[in-house]
Please model this.
Amino acid sequence: MKSISLFVILLGLWLLMSGHYSFLITSLGVLSCAFCVYVARRAKLIDKEGLPLFFFPRLFNYLIWLFKEIFISNLNTAKVIISGKIDPETFTVKASQSTDVAKVTYANSITLTPGTVTTKIKDNMFEVHALNSDFGNDVRSNVMDKKVKWLEGDQ
Amino acid sequence: MDLFIDIITGLCFFIGSLSIIIGACGLIKLPDVFSRIHAAGMIDTGGTAFFLLGMILQTGWSLITVKLILIGVFVFFTSPVTSHVTANLARKKNLMPVGKKIGKLL
Model:
């Protein structure tokens, strides 16, 4: 099941990237996708972590929310850099997700929003560096944590 | 209609360049590695996102649009990883960030 979905994703990517649709080239593409899936299977890369299919149903909603957050914190970071009101702080937050993929997504989301960076990870504790106490409060309010928990679903 | 799209594209490029310039200023102005990563993150997200948006508006619907979106996706996945690696290495070398620390750190 997972192999088939990986094959479909790879083939879609190949078709979008190539732009040549003659019979020979397309069949070579299908063959190379099949070979990639075979190699990935042999290396046991196709598991929950390599292909987190359980993310996909809610991913679109989450991404729209994340883009909005990134835009807002971009504005705030620009303001802080121009005005020079820098008051860095370092603190730890707890991640409530159960799978590793979801934890990585949470840490990546924190780092992706400018103004906050995950500096260290140990089990389910993250050490976060924030440019300003406003950014710090955003992370400490656990809104993003709950969103990623929701994205993960019941795992 | 073409003029309208051109104006929007110009606006996107303007905002993108502005965020890259502010990010570059931040890279020089901010006090330590950890704060500078925030400025770099601003260039990664704000700068590339607006430039790609402007370019997508210019190409219209074609395979090039898909490739531009894929560039965005790959930047979106790799930039936080490089930021995190930089910050994590600095912490591993026992570099402490400037400013206040709340609670016990890891």
Remarks:
- The mean pLDDT of chain A is 88.
- The CA atoms of residues 74 and 114 of chain A lie 6 Å apart.
